[in-house]
Write a structure and sequence with these properties.
Elements: E1 16-29, E2 35-43, E3 50-55, H1 60-71, E4 87-94, E5 100-106, H2 108-111
Antiparallel strand pairs: 1-2, 1-4, 2-3, 4-5
Amino acid sequence: MAFNYTREESSNAGAGDHRFAVISAEEKTSKTGKQMVVITLKPNGATFTVNDYIVEGEYFNRKMTQFFDSTGIEEGNFNYLTWTGAVGAARFKENENGYLKVGYYIDQKRAEKLPAWVGDKPERQTVTEIGGRMETLDPSDDLPF
């Protein structure tokens, strides 16, 4: 049997500065009972995701400011659905088990020096509110359509 072998290098990102896309974000409670934001990031060119845990406390505001500056998400916008698809950059480091974690976020000006995005660049998700509030319909009312 003959195999059709061609050398192929791994495209997985290692430690260092990389662009990333926000896959998801949600609020959770840490093991110590503090509120935190869990952000799932996918480094450009990687086949895996990295979770960043931004826990309420001394460094929360600083780290959130870095995140907003990196991704261009409006400062103070905690509508997590609108974060999906945002692109930013970060310094990724290896933890004690060899997995990547976010060391810090890189602002957009410094990120310009990084290599361009490889592949299809994600689009940031938009959410539209209709009327800003929900109303209860009376079953006897005629529907407008």
